[in-house]
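Now for a specimen:

…
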Amino acid sequence: MIGLAGLWAGEASAQGCSEIRFASGAYSGEVAGAVSDGWPLCFRFGSGAGQTARLQIIGNENTCFTIPGVTDCQDDFSFRTRRQSYEVRVFQLFRAPGAENFRLRLTIR
């Protein structure tokens, strides 16, 4: 995975999505942000074929993520990957009066 992450950096920037990066030798990485009603955040990651990816929202019960073509509105989800780039959209589940902070953890094995 470490070698593949760089392949998608340019693509992620071009799409307006932030890349989820891993430290050298690590198998997981985290991003943090704040979402408000109508303003989802977009993240991207690349993977090899046959790996298991797990995404988890940490620190907020009113925030979920969608991976188009894979799953909708989850706070903890694992799936077998293909060799490709995935987009993750994080948003509020229910309308709230203000922005809500979250952390999104991605683990790939």
The CA atoms of residues 28 and 35 lie 22 Å apart. Helices lie at 2-5, 9-15. Strands lie at 18-19, 28-35, 41-47, 52-58, 63-67, 71-74, 76-80, 84-92, 100-108.
